[in-house]
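User: Hi! Is it possible to get a structure for several chains at once, not just one? Here's what I have:
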Amino acid sequence: MHKEAAIREPLILGDKSYHDITVDVVGPIENKAPKAWYLLITISSIIAVWGLGCVVYLISTGIGTWGLNKTVGWAWDITNFVWWVGIGHAGTLISAVLLLFRQKWRMAINRSAEAMTIFAVMMAALFPGIHMGRIWLAYWVLPLPNQFGSLWVNFNSPLLWDVFAISTYFSVSLVFWYIGLIPDFATIRDRMTNPTAKKIYGILSFGWSGKAKNWTRFEEVSLVLAGLATPLVFSVHSIVSMDFATSVIPGWHTTIFPPYFVSGAVFSGFAMVLTLLLIMRKVMKLENYITIKHVEYMNIVIIVTGSIVGVAYLTELFISWYSGVEYESYAFINRFSGPYAWSYWCMMTCNVISPQLFWFKKIRTNLTATFILSIVVNIGMWFERFVIIVTSLHRDYVPSSWSMFYPTWVDIGVFVGTIGIFFTLFLLFARFFPVLALNELKTILKSSGEKYKNEDH
Amino acid sequence: MNFVFSNKAKVLSYVLIAIGVITIIAGYFLESHETHHTRWWTNLMINGFYFLAISLGALFFYALHFATETAWAVMLRRVIEAVYSFIPIASVVLVIVFIGATMHWNHIYHWMDNTILHEFVVESTMDSDHPVYFDSVEDAEAAGQAVMANPDYDHIIANKTAYLNVPFFWIRTLIYLGAFIWFARWFRKRSLREDEEGGTALHFKGYKRAAVYLVIFAVFSSTLSWDWIMSIDTHWFSTLFGWYVFSGMWVSAMNIITILTLYLISKGYLKDINSSHLHDMGKWVFALSFLWSYLWFSQFLLIWYSDIPEEVTYFITRIEHYKVPFFGMFIINFAIPMVMFMSRDAKRNPGFLIAIGTIIFIGHFIDTYMLITPGTMFEHWHFGWMEIGFFVGFTGLFINRVLTALTKAPLQPQKSPYLDESLHHSI
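Assistant: Yes, the chains can be modeled jointly so their relative placement is included. Here is the combined structure:
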């Protein structure tokens, strides 16, 4: 029999019954949306529409509308791509890796983190897509038979590995998320009075009946998917890092990239989860489920991954000197003292120094401080990719090819637009989907609920 | 209940130690003088480092289970403490190797060789035992010496002397070893005190200290790998190297902890360890084998793919001259745990865990061999009686010391806030 130590803090606060959990989670779907939701979705969809407009302009006019030049052939496009893919890491880490580690606190956050993952990966996929120029030929990235008139893809290219890695990751994340939703959709179906809504949720729940047999299969498939998804958490960002690290460009080619990108991805993913959840728990009154302890755990993940990233930065810097390769050394000297030094130091401050504040319990359990720092981390992680990509490129081997990168309004517009699309999707999710894994939460109520914990039973 | 080191096990450990001692003595005298006993010193280094790596991995996991509030592993605390009790002994072995290197009894560290670090040499002293070197012509003129360009000068290594120099190397080494030994003793003392006092205050002290240790080890595990191992191939560099070596430490430690626990269970101890504990241990060995393979592959793939001469030379040496151990140990350490530990039942089967664990134990020994030997022996490598004898001897010493450490405290922690949860572990 399972026995939870008294020393562990409760994960569900207050005097909650099984029914209360259902009401607290499904309530917001059944009731009318608050004004704040309408306000937020209006703002974010306006930004989204602006972003889509920029995409249309970009595709109809050409990549020349971006600020790229002969030397800096990759800049904001790939920075945004890597940034979004990184954010998309937290969901699967929480649902798969934390499931394997039996971290029960994941149950309050996994649903929204997985949704966020899916939306973030969609935003990421947009960038290579629109970068192709002729987006209507996007299917050429797949190894199609030559009858289609295309060229056979280059299997030696990490860009192709990316296609496979990201599409696999996206599919598995989607399936994982959906499987988890099935019992919760069934709960909503059973409560719906509106016949159309009941029908829709009925279809979505695949006829779930809540029998023991259903639950056994649910748990089995969750474990299998967790086992499959865990290597994917590593593979996706490792392969993204290989887009750079397989090259021979100083500052890009370094062996630490795969694990260090993975760690950075988890770091930024958790920061985005915090940004979203801190607002959501307030607006949807979920403070009893997403407790201060949950926030603290996430902040600890941020310290750990942020410090790993910090160690990686310093390792790269040290080895660039130790290697004795003058190009390698210069790439790093240029990073911290060249014309883009401001972005390097911005990255260092946001990613390495600021998370260390979470060593203080007062700060890591303070919601305002956490919210601010979560945004700081996201800014820092954007700059990390910008630093890696632009500073390594802009001073080419031949000084006559040295140049700077300046973003145009289209660069900025597309990036801001993806933030708008992302938030629009997330707000829709929060309105129509159960934002907490309510049936899974019920399984820990008796062992980790504040009222039941430490009672003799 | 306390563990009793049976006579049979003692005798076995002494036999293994005796084989080791004979090999060490015979090896020293049988190896020809012309090679400067390189093979002998290399073996000492491999074994010193491998068993230190196992103990450090154990200390790391100990701190990790504290900092992550892992309950199930509480039952394993005494076993882990026994494994990391080997840190001081392995440290002494490494210190002997480093003294040997400093005194030029061995040439494991090419960068300790004074002849390659200076650009100029006084012509008349060149063929003497103690040539006089200068770093610039001006210095030589000031000293009134006529110099010529030093034919052995290696500017790449000379540029590294700000980091790779004997005093700084020793300072770092002593700081690492001192920190490890100090933390290991502190955790052990805390653990024994908790047996008597109980309560949560001592537990939280351990929790905090564990977090501090993890930070320290995060830095030291990388830097010690550069200092002790990567600098053997002095020209070569890889940013991933530290993490790769660290993952090897961790998987080797989990493997040994599992084997040792199973040995104790087979002798009738640790009765409260159930199949769920075993399953979790098996999962760690399985998962960490993947982590190790992932890092090995990341380093290999990126260097092989880019094919930059100063980097790829490392793998060219290994592939051209060490093909069998190089790829063989990757297959042993990756494919065997992957295939064998995939199923749930395998991870709960003691015989299976021990059999595969033994193979992995040897596999990671060969990994350590591959980290060190190509940089010291180049293409003139051997894997024969000396390698086996050293390894057997050190394994005997390790068994002897770890089992002795186990006798000194109750095998099961008496009081920990997580003890009850660990006793009821069920997955």
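The radius of gyration of chain B is 24 Å. The mean pLDDT of chain B is 94.

User: Great, thank you!
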